[in-house]
Design goal:
The structure is a single chain. With 343 residues, the chain is an alpha/beta fold. It has a single domain, classed as Aldolase class I (TIM Barrel), CATH 3.20.20. The chain contains eleven helices and twelve strands. The protein has helices spanning 12-17, 23-40, 59-76, 113-131, 165-171, 188-199, 239-252, 265-268, 274-288, 290-295, 327-341; strands spanning 47-52, 80-85, 135-138, 152-157, 178-181, 203-206, 209-212, 219-223, 226-227, 233-234, 259-262, 296-302. Helix 5 links the parallel strand 4 (152-157) and strand 5 (178-181). The chain is globular. It starts with 11 loop residues before the first helix and ends with a helix. Belongs to the class-I DAHP synthase family. It is an enzyme of class 2 (transferase).
Length: 343
């Protein structure tokens, strides 16, 4: 095989001991995870926000953001529950684009995956223990799940992974919520087939052993927009598409129906300020239709300390991948959501 081992085999148990939640930190995480589960099951009517930087490239900037978000969460906790995006791996297969903290823990140096693993665990651990928030990450590599499964409270499966059988099967064995995005084509059937697979028990080979899974009743929809054959963005947060998604949920008999609107990506065309309008329009749609209110109960929002993006990490807290809302606009948007829900 043309695969060449560059390091010793990773001792997962040893890696986990370096940043292990214990005592009150563990108890607090378990309590928040239970709250999140009740929200997705419809037992708690708060709105879920999966919110934070497009990619977590700088530990100190991410922690500064987390501290601000934690203080904001306290102010809106009776209407809104926030899980912070701590995304540490990015889908980059063409060219030399930034692949995330997992690959490159120091953006000024060459890729270093072994130290990247430690950096990823340390960042999730610090956000949890220093701010009281719980975290979300993208499950880009299913084989790496065991490296972070004790820390991450919400797993997202991206548009380019949702059709992959291994992602679907591994999702069926996770005991935490898994949000599954529609593919870039916008085909809702593909996404719903992925959710069906994730919600049901599966049998497959995982980490060199035959395994059975219990199925994940917390697997659910994330609508992130699409790209048509002409390369144009086609948003899918509109009223009629939401009703179509709800009909598909009911037709397939999936449990715990829950829809998250991804306000960036192909819904916004990566025009980050559009996220504000998309949230507003979705809240109006919820007011117009009881079913939409019942099913659409979450937003995924990309935000950081500074507005926009940059090509290299020169400005502290400004994204080096997709553009994000800055903190001032983020705080205003969350407070606007809170005020709308309080009417």
């Amino acid at each position: 095989m043309a695969i060449h081992q560059k390091s010793a085999t990773i001792d997962v148990a040893k890696v986990k001991e370096l940043s292990k939640l214990e005592g009150q930190f563990l108890a607090d995480k378990i309590a928040r995870d239970e709250e999140l589960s009740r929200i997705i099951k419809g037992e708690d009517d708060r709105i879920l926000l999966v919110i934070g930087p497009c990619s977590s490239d700088n530990e100190e900037a991410v922690l500064e953001y987390a501290k601000r978000l934690s203080a904001l969460q306290e102010k809106v906790k009776d209407k809104i529950f926030m899980v912070m995006r701590v995304y540490t791996a990015k889908p980059r297969t063409n060219g030399d684009g930034y692949k995330g903290l997992m690959h490159q823990p120091d953006t000024s140096k060459l890729p270093d995956l072994i130290n990247g693993i430690a950096a990823v665990r340390n960042l999730h651990y610090r956000v949890i223990t220093e701010t009281g928030l719980t975290t979300a990450d993208e499950m880009l590599y299913p084989s790496n799940l065991s490296l972070v499964d004790d820390l991450v409270s919400y797993h997202a499966i991206g548009a380019r992974s949702v059709e992959d059988q291994e992602h679907r099967f591994v999702a069926s064995g996770i005991d935490a919520p898994v949000g599954m995005k529609n593919p870039t084509s916008g085909n809702l059937n593909v996404m719903f087939n992925g959710i069906y697979a994730a919600q049901n028990s599966q049998n497959f080979i995982f980490q060199n052993a035959e395994v059975d899974t219990d199925g994940n009743p917390l697997a659910h929809v994330i609508l992130r927009g699409a790209v048509n054959e002409h390369g144009e963005n086609e948003p899918n947060y509109y009223y009629d598409i939401l009703l179509k998604a709800i009909t598909q949920y009911e037709k397939m008999g999936l449990v715990n129906p829950f829809i998250v609107i991804d306000t960036n990506h192909d819904n916004s065309g990566k025009q980050y300020l559009e996220q504000i309008r998309i949230v507003r329009q979705t809240l109006i749609n919820r007011d117009w239709n009881e079913k939409i209110r019942q099913y659409v109960r979450g937003f995924m929002i990309e935000s950081y300390l500074e507005d926009g993006r940059q090509d290299s990490p020169e400005i502290f807290g400004k994204s080096i991948t997709d553009p994000c809302l800055g903190w001032e606009k983020t705080e205003e948007l969350v407070q606007e959501i809170y005020a709308t829900l309080s009417k």
